[in-house]
C-alpha cells in the first residue's frame, strides 16, 4: 500500500523543512507519483497528520530491486588547515564539515548522534528530538535483538518507521554490548588501568558472561540468562533486518587491560570478521529486494597502541566499507591522536564515526582530528540523575540552592525546558520520582550537545574553530567540571 499519512514527510520532500534535513537523493519517478497522490489529498493526512509514513514503503527503496548504493555518500565542505601542532602526517588536521547523504535524509557534520538504545530516547518522543534539531538517532542491535526481535522491526518496515523517526538511523553491531559482558565493564573510554594487567580481568563482583573464539562470541543474555551466539554473519543478519541507514561491522572489543599480544591477535581477528561482514552485507543487500541501501562502517580497534591503530586502520581502509567507526578502549589523553592516526590511512570520502564518546573536551579533540559523527549516552543518562550540562560546566540540580531557584536550568538556553520550566520545578519532579523530571532534564541536556556540535560546525565553516574551542573549554572547565 502506498498511502502516506505523513504531513512531515511531505514537507521534507518539498524542501520546506529546515536546511538541516534536505534530501540527498532525487525522487525516483515512482516516488514522485506517490508524492503527487499524497498531495492531491485522499483526506487521510488530515485525519492523522502526525503518524509518520506508517503505510508508505521505506524511503529510497524500489520494489523488486536491491538497495542502491549511490544513495549513500559523503560530501566534504570545509577542512581545517594544517598546522605544526596537527596530529596527522605532515601536521594534517582532519577536522572538517560536510554532509552524509542517506536514503532517510542528510546529516550535516560534525554532528551529535543521540542514543535511542531500545528504539526510544528514554522519556522523550522523536517529535521532540526533531524540535531539538537532532539529525539522526543511534540504536543498539543487541538490545533490539533481545527484544522485540529483529523480525518484528523488519515487518514494521525498518527502524525509522518502527520508532516514528523521520530521519537517518544508526545501529551498532552488538559487539560492544556482547563483549562488555566478557570483561564485566560497561565503559571503556578513559578507563583507569592503574595496576591492571591480566587478559582475563573481570570487574569486581561481576560474572564473565561472554567468550570469544575465532568464529564469534558466545554469551549469556543479561535479560533472561539464555545462551546466544553472535558472529559477523549473525550481526549482519540482525542489522539488515533492523534496517538502519548506517550499520557497523562486528568487531572484537578489547579493554586497556588486555596484553599487547592479545591486542595484536584481536585486531587480526577483527580484520577477518570485517571481511566476513562485507561478504554477508553484500549478499544480504542483493537478496533483500525492495529495501533502501544500508551503509556499512568498518571498526578500527587497537587500544592505545599507535602502530596497532595504524595497522588496523590500513586493514579497514583496504576493504570496501562505506565509512569507519573508531572504537574500543582509548585513554582520554590519546583520543585526538587516535583519530588522526586512523584518518592518515582513511580515504577522505568515507565518513568517520567515533563510538561512545563522553565529554565536551573529547568532542573537540575528536572533531579537530577528523571525527564526523559522535554518539553519546551521557546527556540522557546524566539527566535522569539530575546532572545538567551548561556552558559553565555540569551541575547537579539536587543542590539545596535549587529548591527555590525559579530561573531556567541554564540562563540563555533556547530549549523547551528552559523556556517553560524552572530549576525548582525540575528538582522537585526528580526528587518525587516523577517521569516528567527526567524528560525535562533530558530535553535540555540533549539540546546542549546538539547545539554544541551545531556551533562547532559553524565555527569550522566560518574559520573560527580554535577561538570557539578555547573559549568553550576555558569556560566549561573553569569551575572544575568533569565530563
Ligand atoms: Zn535548556
From TrEMBL:
<dbReference type="GO" id="GO:0008479">
    <property type="term" value="F:tRNA-guanosine(34) queuine transglycosylase activity"/>
</dbReference>
<keyword id="KW-0819">tRNA processing</keyword>
<comment type="pathway">
    <text>tRNA modification; tRNA-queuosine biosynthesis.</text>
</comment>
<feature type="domain" description="tRNA-guanine(15) transglycosylase-like">
    <location>
        <begin position="95"/>
        <end position="477"/>
    </location>
</feature>
<feature type="binding site">
    <location>
        <position position="301"/>
    </location>
    <ligand>
        <name>substrate</name>
    </ligand>
</feature>
<keyword id="KW-0479">Metal-binding</keyword>
<dbReference type="InterPro" id="IPR050076">
    <property type="entry name" value="ArchSynthase1/Queuine_TRR"/>
</dbReference>
<protein>
    <recommendedName>
        <fullName>Queuine tRNA-ribosyltransferase</fullName>
        <ecNumber>2.4.2.29</ecNumber>
    </recommendedName>
</protein>
<feature type="active site" description="Nucleophile">
    <location>
        <position position="375"/>
    </location>
</feature>
<feature type="compositionally biased region" description="Basic and acidic residues">
    <location>
        <begin position="56"/>
        <end position="68"/>
    </location>
</feature>
<keyword id="KW-0862">Zinc</keyword>
<dbReference type="GO" id="GO:0008616">
    <property type="term" value="P:tRNA queuosine(34) biosynthetic process"/>
</dbReference>
<dbReference type="GO" id="GO:0046872">
    <property type="term" value="F:metal ion binding"/>
</dbReference>
<feature type="binding site">
    <location>
        <position position="413"/>
    </location>
    <ligand>
        <name>Zn(2+)</name>
    </ligand>
</feature>
<dbReference type="Pfam" id="PF01702">
    <property type="entry name" value="TGT"/>
</dbReference>
<dbReference type="InterPro" id="IPR004803">
    <property type="entry name" value="TGT"/>
</dbReference>
<feature type="compositionally biased region" description="Polar residues">
    <location>
        <begin position="30"/>
        <end position="53"/>
    </location>
</feature>
<comment type="similarity">
    <text>Belongs to the queuine tRNA-ribosyltransferase family.</text>
</comment>
<feature type="binding site">
    <location>
        <position position="415"/>
    </location>
    <ligand>
        <name>Zn(2+)</name>
    </ligand>
</feature>
<feature type="binding site">
    <location>
        <begin position="172"/>
        <end position="176"/>
    </location>
    <ligand>
        <name>substrate</name>
    </ligand>
</feature>
<feature type="binding site">
    <location>
        <position position="251"/>
    </location>
    <ligand>
        <name>substrate</name>
    </ligand>
</feature>
<dbReference type="InterPro" id="IPR036511">
    <property type="entry name" value="TGT-like_sf"/>
</dbReference>
<comment type="subunit">
    <text>Homodimer. Within each dimer, one monomer is responsible for RNA recognition and catalysis, while the other monomer binds to the replacement base PreQ1.</text>
</comment>
<comment type="function">
    <text>Catalyzes the base-exchange of a guanine (G) residue with the queuine precursor 7-aminomethyl-7-deazaguanine (PreQ1) at position 34 (anticodon wobble position) in tRNAs with GU(N) anticodons (tRNA-Asp, -Asn, -His and -Tyr). Catalysis occurs through a double-displacement mechanism. The nucleophile active site attacks the C1' of nucleotide 34 to detach the guanine base from the RNA, forming a covalent enzyme-RNA intermediate. The proton acceptor active site deprotonates the incoming PreQ1, allowing a nucleophilic attack on the C1' of the ribose to form the product.</text>
</comment>
<feature type="binding site">
    <location>
        <position position="418"/>
    </location>
    <ligand>
        <name>Zn(2+)</name>
    </ligand>
</feature>
<feature type="active site" description="Proton acceptor">
    <location>
        <position position="172"/>
    </location>
</feature>
<dbReference type="InterPro" id="IPR002616">
    <property type="entry name" value="tRNA_ribo_trans-like"/>
</dbReference>
<feature type="binding site">
    <location>
        <position position="328"/>
    </location>
    <ligand>
        <name>substrate</name>
    </ligand>
</feature>
<feature type="region of interest" description="Disordered">
    <location>
        <begin position="1"/>
        <end position="70"/>
    </location>
</feature>
<feature type="region of interest" description="RNA binding; important for wobble base 34 recognition">
    <location>
        <begin position="380"/>
        <end position="384"/>
    </location>
</feature>
<keyword id="KW-0808">Transferase</keyword>
<dbReference type="GO" id="GO:0005829">
    <property type="term" value="C:cytosol"/>
</dbReference>
<feature type="binding site">
    <location>
        <position position="444"/>
    </location>
    <ligand>
        <name>Zn(2+)</name>
    </ligand>
</feature>
<keyword id="KW-0328">Glycosyltransferase</keyword>
<keyword id="KW-0671">Queuosine biosynthesis</keyword>
Amino acid at each position: 500500500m502506498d498511502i502516506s499519512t505523513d504531513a512531515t514527510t511531505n514537507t521534507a520532500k518539498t524542501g520546506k523543512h529546515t536546511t538541516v534535513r534536505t534530501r540527498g537523493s532525487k525522487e525516483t519517478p515512482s516516488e514522485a507519483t506517490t508524492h503527487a497522490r499524497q498531495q492531491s489529498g485522499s483526506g487521510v493526512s488530515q485525519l492523522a497528520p502526525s503518524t509518520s509514513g506508517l503505510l508508505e514503503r521505506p524511503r529510497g527503496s524500489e520494489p523488486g530491486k536491491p538497495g542502491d548504493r549511490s544513495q549513500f555518500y559523503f560530501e566534504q565542505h570545509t577542512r581545517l588547515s594544517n598546522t605544526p601542532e596537527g596530529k596527522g602526517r605532515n601536521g594534517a588536521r582532519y577536522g572538517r564539515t560536510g554532509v552524509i547523504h542517506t536514503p532517510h535524509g542528510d546529516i550535516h557534520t560534525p554532528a551529535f548522534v543521540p542514543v535511542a538504545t531500545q528504539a526510544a530516547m528514554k522519556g522523550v518522543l522523536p517529535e521532540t528530538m526533531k524540535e531539538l534539531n537532532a539529525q539522526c538517532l543511534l540504536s543498539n542491535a543487541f538490545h533490539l535483538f533481545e527484544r522485540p526481535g529483529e523480525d518484528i522491526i523488519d515487518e514494521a518496515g525498518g527502524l525509522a518507521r518502527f520508532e516514528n523517526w523521520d530521519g537517518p538511523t544508526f545501529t551498532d553491531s552488538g559487539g560492544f554490548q556482547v563483549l562488555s559482558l566478557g570483561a564485566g565493564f560497561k565503559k571503556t573510554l578513559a578507563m583507569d588501568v592503574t595496576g591492571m594487567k591480566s587478559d582475563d580481568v573481570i570487574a569486581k563482583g561481576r560474572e564473565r558472561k561472554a567468550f570469544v573464539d575465532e568464529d564469534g562470541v558466545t554469551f549469556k543474555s543479561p535479560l533472561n540468562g539464555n545462551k546466544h551466539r553472535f558472529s559477523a554473519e549473525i550481526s549482519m543478519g540482525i542489522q539488515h533486518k533492523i534496517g538502519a541507514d548506517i550499520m557497523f561491522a562486528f568487531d572484537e572489543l578489547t579493554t586497556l587491560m588486555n596484553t599487547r599480544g592479545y591486542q595484536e591477535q584481536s585486531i587480526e581477528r577483527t580484520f577477518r570478521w570485517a571481511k566476513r561482514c562485507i561478504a554477508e552485507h553484500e549478499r544480504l543487500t542483493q537478496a533483500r529486494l525492495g529495501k533502501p541501501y544500508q551503509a556499512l562502517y568498518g571498526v578500527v580497534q587497537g587500544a592505545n597502541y599507535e602502530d596497532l591503530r595504524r595497522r588496523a586502520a590500513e586493514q579497514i581502509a583496504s576493504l570496501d566499507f562505506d565509512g569507519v567507526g573508531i572504537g574500543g578502549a582509548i585513554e582520554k589523553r590519546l583520543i585526538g591522536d587516535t583519530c588522526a592516526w586512523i584518518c592518515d590511512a582513511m580515504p577522505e570520502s568515507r565518513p568517520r564515526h567515533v563510538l561512545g564518546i563522553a565529554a565536551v573536551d573529547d568532542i573537540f579533540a575528536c572533531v579537530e582530528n577528523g571525527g564526523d559523527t559522535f554518539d553519546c549516552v551521557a546527556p540522557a543518562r546524566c539527566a535522569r540523575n539530575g546532572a545538567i550540562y551548561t556552558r559553565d560546566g555540569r551541575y547537579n540540580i539536587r543542590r539545596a540552592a535549587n529548591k527555590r531557584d525559579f530561573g531556567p536550568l541554564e540562563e540563555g538556553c533556547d530549549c523547551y525546558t528552559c523556556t517553560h520550566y524552572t530549576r525548582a520545578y525540575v528538582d522537585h519532579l526528580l526528587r518525587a520520582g516523577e517521569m516528567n523530571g527526567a524528560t525535562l532534564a533530558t530535553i535540555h541536556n540533549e539540546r546542549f550537545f546538539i547545539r554544541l556540535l551545531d556551533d562547532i560546525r559553524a565555527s569550522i565553516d566560518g574559520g573560527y574553530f580554535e577561538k570557539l574551542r578555547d573559549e568553550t573549554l576555558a569556560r566549561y572547565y573553569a569551575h572544575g567540571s568533569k565530563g
